[in-house]
Amino acid sequence: MRYVLFIAADPTGEATEEDPQAWVEKWNGRGVRLEGMPLKPVAETRTIRVRGEQVLVTDGPFAETTEWIAGYDLLEAADLDEAIEVAASHPMASAGRIEIRPVDPLDLGPGTDSVPHDGDAPAARYLGIFRTDPTAQPADPDPAAVAAWVRDGLARGRYLGGEHLRPVHDATLVRRRNGEVLITDEAYTDVPQWVTGLVFVDGERQEVIDYLARSPMARAGIAELREFWTDFA
Q1: The model's pTM
Q2: Burial class (CB in 10 A: 0-12, 13-18, 19+), 178
């Protein structure tokens, strides 16, 4: 089963000298970790909402929280226990916190498959993070409209792939503090705007903002635009 790990910052985390690359090589070698990438600081986020015919784009994250997503990893694990083992061995389980979310495969029909890729992540410049928004008009995005948006993105070179996630009540939070692994049923931060899915999107920033603003999810919730950190070495 596939799981997404949200690698999150946590000001209460503990200093660690563990090597993240050693963790990557260990779980890549076992065929459990499929891909993953760090993200640039949350301060560089753009938040996109569409309400009525108005596109609202703001600088910064959806909310001011002390915990924020610093990267993601995608696993193919035997079960939740193995996903917890992988998460608990990550250096950020000590320095931060890790949310495990099961992937909920969504078949949108022909012509909507993710673009195949080699390496640690799709060759996208940005990660789009879709969230719920309790202040928005309640609506479930029409699968046909989502499929049309995906096909349009594939044709334009904007959409390279994505993952639809199971609801937040299926989230598992993993931390290591004082040598003890702490496992709780919760998200990485306690907010009502929980993550519903991820998309890998490419192009110039404004092109990607325009593309996310056309998604049905930006009308029913929130789209966050985060840039991958590819030059951190």
Answers
A1: 0.95
A2: exposed
